[in-house]
Amino acid sequence: MDMIIKNGTVVNGSATFKADVGISGGKIVCIADSIEPNDCQSIVDASGKLVLPGAIDAHTHLAMPFGGTVSSDDYFAGTRAAACGGTTMVFDFALQDFGEKMTDTVKRRDALCAPDAAVDYSFHVAVKDVDNGLLDSIDECVEYGVPSFKVFMVYDFGVTDGVFYRVLQKAKEVGALIGVHAENNELVNTLTKQYLSEGKTSAWYHYMSRPEFVEGEADERAIQWAKATGAPLYIVHLANKQGVEAVTKAKDEGYEIYAETCPQYLEFTSDVYKREDGRNFVCSPPMKGAESQAAIWEAIKRGDIDTIATDHCPFQSAEKDWGINDFTKIPNGCAGIENMYPYMLSAANSGKITFEQAVKLCSENPAKIFGCKDKGSVAIGKDADIVIYDPDLDFTITNDKMHSDCDHTIWEGVKLHGYPVQTYSRGRLVYDKGEFLGERGWGKFVKCSLK
Ligand code: DUC
Ligand code: ZN
Ligand code: ZN
Questions:
Q1: How many Cα atoms are found within 13 Å in the side-chain-facing hemisphere of 377?
Q2: Which CATH number belongs to the domain containing residue 242 in this structure?
């Protein structure tokens, strides 16, 4: 055996037990009350620690051309930060070009990612063009190992209602999963124009132009079409109460509707846009009011939110400053890839949710929903993507301790109870007590399957 993690408490999505974990060739090969060291190469003492599956961040935007610039974390910096926060796999978005087959989109993006990624990765294809036979290229992409797609209802790469509907029909036919960024584009544009014409240009009006109902209506519409087509639907970054209620209702009716939320919606409310540095918090959808935040936490507790992901999309302060006098010029997005697992585990350590719930939301469920068969739990045969977590190590987030290529973080000063001390990616130590020990190019493309 290459390594034994001894005396720790294993936490999976539905079980917690004391055990030793044996690793060989990057895989978990043995789990037992006690594993004899014999000729084992290395022993890790996890007494007093939790042994967790690495998190899977199902929603990142690395090196993404957006808002007049490119998000500041490339594939190396983003996956380095992921590793240092206990995330051992990321899903990035491969944005289709017009006229491009979906598999070509994935290959184009993978060529950029493969030399740089420090942890494993896969993609969702962000669909723009389904004409001239391109809708049918979804079949080949599913076979290639990317069975998940996303449509945006906003931005210049957003799709029409008709395209969204056709993508859902296709997904139903071939067993793909469609994610959706749900906000009502028309309302966003109308409200934005109104506020600008009234000279209301501060970051607060980013929120005011995308308030609760702008997202809630779009969630309801998206769910309506999923019901009509019979296709499963994954709502990304759900941040409002009306949408939560629509998801709960659809689930109760038996529809296959999944919901993801992000830590920023759990920690911050729209009040942040009144702050001096409010523009740093500008992302879409924006943080919402306290009522929405409470509704999301309640949905997490009762199991109606399926996953936590980050929507990681950092921009430098100078780029955020483009919007000091005009909120529409602020590149949308914030850093979070290094904070997700520690934040959710801290919520568990403080009694808000259980550790099993945190693991389910951040690892087990994304692995199941997106078809990563080798990930998502500490179990024999799975990849040895493992986090050693110290529940007694308190941690205050400051940007100088983060591992992104960004000069600020919205998480500055947030206090966490407990913190990861080590991260292993397929058995290789990539993070140790504050230090990144991984390497560029270690991360592998993970083929996913929903069959
Ligand atoms: N929202 C953001 O804030 N950034 C990237 C894309 C998105 O949908
Ligand atoms: Zn989005
Ligand atoms: Zn996003």
A1: 17
A2: 3.20.20.140
Tokens of 268: 């911050």
- Which atom of ligand 1 has the smallest separation from the CA of 283? 3
Query: What is the rounded distance in angstroms from the CA atom of residue 115 to the CA atom of residue 163?
Result: 34
d(C-alpha 41, C-alpha 38), whole Å: 9
**CA distances from residue 75 to 113, 174, 316 in whole angstroms, order as listed:** 6, 30, 16
> Which segments of the chain have a pLDDT < 70?
none
Greatest Cα pair distance, the chain, in angstroms, is 75
Domain membership of residue 449 (yes or no) is no
State pLDDT tens for residues 369-426. Answer: 999 999 999 999 999 999 999 999 999 999 999 999 999 999 999 999 999 999 999 9
Q: Look at ligand 1, atom 2, and give the residue with the nearest C-alpha.
A: 333
The tally of domains found in the chain comes to 2
Q: How far is the CA of 330 from the centre of ligand 1 (A)?
A: 11
pTM of the complete model: 0.98
Per-residue model confidence (pLDDT) at position 39: 84
Angle between helices 137-144 and 102-113 (to 10 degrees): 40
The domain of 409 spans 3-52+381-434
448 in any annotated domain: no
Closest approach atom of ligand 1 to CA 64:
5
Ligand nearest to the CA of 69: 1
Q: Is the previous residue joined to 285 through a cis bond, with omega within 30 degrees of 0? A: yes
Nearest alpha carbon to residue 236 among 307, 165, 303: 307
Residue 42 maps to a domain: yes
